[in-house]
Amino acid sequence: MDSSSPRKRKRKTTLPPHNPHHLFAQLLAASSNIHTPFSQSLLPKLLKTHLSLIQNIPSPQQNDPQSLPKPTLQDSLLSLLPCLLHPKYPKIAACSAEIVGALALCSFELNARIASDEEIMCALVNAVASGKKRVVMGACNAMLDLSTTLLGRERLREFSAVEKLLSVFCQIAAFPMKPVSLCGGEEDTSNYSRIGFVEDKLQFLVLEAVSTLINTCSAEFLEKLSVTFLCYLKDLWAKLQDSAFQINNQEKRYLYNNMKTSDLAETIFRLSMNYGCHSTCTFDAVKRSIFGSMESDFEHFMLSNWEDSPILFKKKSRCSDYNDCIFSSLVQHFNSRTVDSILDSILGGLFSCPPIASDELDILTFLKEVKGGLACPIVYGQDIRVVKTVGILKEEVHFWTDYMGYSIGKDHVQKCKEAYQNGYTIALRGMEFRSRKIAAIADGLEMLFGQPSVGANLYLTPPRSQGLTRHYDDHCVFVCQLLGSKKWSVFPHSAVQLPRLYDPLGVGSEVTNDACENKQFLLREGDILYIPRGCPHEAHTVINEGESHVEEATGFSLHLTLGIEIEPPFEWEGFAHIALHCWNENRKQTTHDPIESTSQLANVTFINLLHVAIRVVGDNDPTFRKACMVAAFSLPFDSNSQAKQSLHPLDMNQRATFSYIMNKINTVSSFLEAFKIVEAAVHGRNDDSLQWMRWLRHLPREGAVDETIDYNNPWKVFENLVLLYNGHTEEAHATFAHIKSQFCEGVIFEDVCNVFDTLLKKYKRTRKQYMNGMLSLRCNFFE
């Protein structure tokens, strides 16, 4: 062909300008003949013209009827969409999906109408499973647009959109995964980086759509989902972590979407939280590894040392074969490593573990509060401390002085190595959320002691150095020496009362006088030291060989601390509150004593006033602060004889303590003291003195009246009481005394134990979900 001759071009069918009604008439006619080639060619053009009109509709203006969309025309268009979304005609279906998405973004009303239309929803979800790339992509985009409202997301889940999307994603992921990358955004943190795939827009569209629906669903819905999808996501997550320090803003071959790494992290967290991703040490294995094989050794510890005095468990005296000890795998992991390789192991790929409130029992509420905050860089003070104690005054100095509460940056591993060389201790918190092996040990320890959670920290201290200054903890600690040696000084309790969890703690010279008598312990590899909460202590690596009385080289120390954290409900004071609740619930069901003549709301008020009175007693009696029912659910049990269980020394001790608690409440608790506290709270509209009551909302309740109690504003519970009895407290005092007497004499220990166990399981479930979720985001540490 002569190059100068004009090419013949295929004539394009152009559509003349139409008003919306004429355009819809053409669309209706073409749809009725969709099986013909002409209609199949014309319909995409008509749909694109419709799409242009929809996208150019101005936002509705208040009090301007002319700016509102025409409902009749939209209804007619919506009625055609189920037919047009059929994947038999891919080009038409893809254009129709764009129409669905555009209409869903027009207004909340249109979004709701689409979501409420069963035929459209069925057609849209079926389009995702069509296997035709263009249709699937269009349907995914439409789902994302529809998911901008709560109703849209709920309806998509009702029509099994998540299951269909999961199936599509797994089919795509069955092929070798193409390279992935991160694209940095405005925020300078990797968790805000967008995810990119090489030339594979379909994969990340499906991923974004399914993650959007999973990240906004209920806990019940999550339990129905297959874990197969989770395996693919974790593989993707691992690949992203490999590229996390190579964020690419210029590589053009990567296609990026709006999904951020924090979104993917939340999806993995949600899918993992109900599935344990680590083995659990039995409490028998934990008991043998710490206390030895004899049951009497553990009993002696509980009756003589628990929350009272420190004790050292030597490796040789408790383990005939250390390889069977639960700590041996940790020692083997670190053994023969250099300090640099240890730091690389424990700090590489580290994420922050955002704190969960102590009384939060809904894991989804936690996820809402930290939205976008999962997989953040580590935060100084919260996740890690780099500290040393210097000078005659033993002042505590931090390596990062201006970073408390802030991220310390991506180069934290190298900075920590430099700090270590300058005498700083690396203290890493939340190890039970970062290591599966440590999580297994923590699980076993919490089962043994009957507590919701056990915290674990790891400390690496250079030679001739002290990390933290003298201080005491608000939890009991087991110090497990993994490598090297360390010398500890432990002082007697600095106060009569044990510190409550989360109370402000004392440090330095304010803790105890240097002249105070103290016990000194030298820990070597495999040794374990128990330190009760409230006992001041300090430790340093061996300064010279004379201190150790053995011929060993001076070196660094690596130790793990396991903290038995006693939440407020699980102190004896908490047990007393549970007992009062349990007695009141039983009484409402079975008795008709004189106080029933008082209104039910007034009765609820007096019960809560007695809760306040119990709190006052607990503030002054050390026994109320101690952990309750410790090891109660790990005692040897004979199902044929509960009497044998009650004769166990630990069980007998718990029953005796319960009797003491009830007698103390009956004889010491004061109406006037409690009334003054609630009166001040009501007059000042101040909840500070009553915030401790928040956890009471987790106790099971019967009846509508109890459900009206707002424990976020507990002073409101007592408002009517103060108004009614202000200046005339004699009648109120008599009612209070009657309720108190009936409670202390009528409460049954076994009933309280049942409610206590139910509450403990609630706390454990939430903390287990948090642990599983955080562990699922941790790659290659102690695997």
Polypeptide structure, described:
The chain is of the alpha+beta class. It has 3 domains: about 45-55 and about 70-270, Leucine-rich Repeat Variant; about 295-565, Jelly Rolls (Sandwich); about 570-745, no CATH class. The protein is about 50% helix and about 10% strand. An 8-stranded antiparallel sheet has the order 4-12-9-14-8-7-5-6. It has a 3-stranded antiparallel sheet with strand order 1-2-3. The protein has a 3-stranded antiparallel sheet with strand order 11-10-13, with no helix packed on it. Helix 13 packs antiparallel against helix 32 (about 750-775). The relative contact order is 0.07. Its EC number is 1.14.11.-. Belongs to the ROX family. Oxygenase that can act as both a histone lysine demethylase and a ribosomal histidine hydroxylase. It is an enzyme of class 1 (oxidoreductase).
Q: Provide the CATH architecture of the largest domain.
A: Sandwich
What is the distance, rounded to the nearest whole angstrom, between the alpha carbons of the first and last residues?
A: 68 Å
- Biggest sheet: strand arrangement: 4-12-9-14-8-7-5-6
CATH class descriptor name of the largest domain: Mainly Beta
Q: Write down the overall mean pLDDT.
A: 83
Number of domains: 3
Number of strands: 14
Q: Which fold name fills CATH's third level, the topology of the largest domain?
A: Jelly Rolls
What's the helix count?
Answer: 32
The structure class reads: alpha+beta
Task: Provide the low-confidence segments as ranges.
Answer: 1-16, 62-69, 245-250, 548-553, 594-598, 637-644
Biggest sheet features: 8 strands, antiparallel
Function: Oxygenase that can act as both a histone lysine demethylase and a ribosomal histidine hydroxylase.
InterPro entries: JmjC_dom, NO66-like
Cofactor: Fe(2+)
Domain JmjC: 431-581
